[in-house]
């Protein structure tokens, strides 16, 4: 489905995740984050960039893997993206929901 996010027409799947990472930019991320109840700070961007890099390299994502990434530890990850950190962070990063998320 198409929707307008940050003034752009964006393609989303039925769960609200971007279907094309090329449509992602920081304004889109900020609006999706706002929908998730998160105000993005300097601490969020390295995590989002890490998730996108892993996605581009086709590396399966898990909370444990993010916690061991050196970008953020698990406690910080939960603090930055409360209530489902990997699901919310992936949605904000413009990547599909990881298979490890139910």
UniProtKB/TrEMBL annotation:
<feature type="active site" description="Cysteine persulfide intermediate">
    <location>
        <position position="101"/>
    </location>
</feature>
<dbReference type="InterPro" id="IPR007453">
    <property type="entry name" value="DsrC/TusE"/>
</dbReference>
<dbReference type="GO" id="GO:0002143">
    <property type="term" value="P:tRNA wobble position uridine thiolation"/>
</dbReference>
<dbReference type="InterPro" id="IPR042072">
    <property type="entry name" value="DsrC-like_C"/>
</dbReference>
<keyword id="KW-0963">Cytoplasm</keyword>
<dbReference type="GO" id="GO:0097163">
    <property type="term" value="F:sulfur carrier activity"/>
</dbReference>
<comment type="similarity">
    <text>Belongs to the DsrC/TusE family.</text>
</comment>
<dbReference type="GO" id="GO:0005737">
    <property type="term" value="C:cytoplasm"/>
</dbReference>
<protein>
    <submittedName>
        <fullName>TusE/DsrC/DsvC family sulfur relay protein</fullName>
    </submittedName>
</protein>
<dbReference type="InterPro" id="IPR025526">
    <property type="entry name" value="DsrC-like_dom_sf"/>
</dbReference>
<dbReference type="Pfam" id="PF04358">
    <property type="entry name" value="DsrC"/>
</dbReference>
<dbReference type="InterPro" id="IPR043163">
    <property type="entry name" value="DsrC-like_N"/>
</dbReference>
């Amino acid at each position: 489905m198409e929707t307008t996010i940050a003034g752009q027409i964006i393609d989303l799947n039925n769960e609200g995740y971007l279907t094309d990472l090329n449509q992602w930019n920081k304004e889109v991320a900020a609006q999706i984050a706002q929908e998730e109840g998160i105000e993005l700070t300097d601490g969020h961007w390295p995590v989002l960039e890490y998730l996108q890099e892993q996605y581009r390299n086709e590396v399966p994502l898990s909370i444990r893997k993010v916690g061991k990434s050196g970008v953020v530890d698990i406690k910080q990850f939960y603090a930055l993206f409360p209530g489902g950190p990997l699901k919310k962070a992936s949605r904000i990063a413009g990547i599909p929901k990881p298979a490890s998320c139910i």
